[in-house]
Amino acid sequence: MTIGEVKDILEAKVLIGGDRMDEPVDTACGSDLMSDVLAFVKDKTVLITGLINPHVVRTSEMLDITCIVFSRGKLPSEEILEEAEESGITVLSTEMTTYTACGELYVHGLPGTKKRAGAEGA
């Protein structure tokens, strides 16, 4: 799946990274706890979250997360958007809840991460 397909499925607005719609994504993760994101996420992941603070971008940068989707129509500050742009992370916003957004991506074929990052077979 590509970021552009994620955008279409979630009926999302592109906030940063409109030129990266053809980039592939392999998995999705929905969480507001960055400690869970650190434990379960692999690269080329879409992070769906309702948490809007700079830690979301910093965590995403550390894990090579391709795209952040802010749920429930939340819009991050300019500071967060600038940090994402500098890191090459695409940022979208959807009116869907985190749960619904994850479900929509799953039924359209984008799997989640099933095991802790670094776990055997993960």
Oligomer: single chain
CATH superfamily: HprK N-terminal domain-like
Runs in which pLDDT lies below 50 for 5 or more consecutive residues are none
CATH class category label: Alpha Beta
DSSP helix fraction: 25-40%
Q: How many discrete structural domains? A: 1
Mean pLDDT: 90
The best one-word shape is globular
Task: Characterise this structure.
There is one protein chain. This protein is an alpha/beta fold and 122 residues long. It is 35% helix and 17% strand. The chain is globular. It has a single domain, classed as HprK N-terminal domain-like (Udp-n-acetylmuramoylalanyl-d-glutamate--2,6- Diaminopimelate Ligase, Chain: A, domain 1, 3-Layer(aba) Sandwich). The chain contains five helices and five strands; from the N terminus they run αββαβαβαβα. The protein starts with a helix and ends in a 15-residue tail after the last helix.
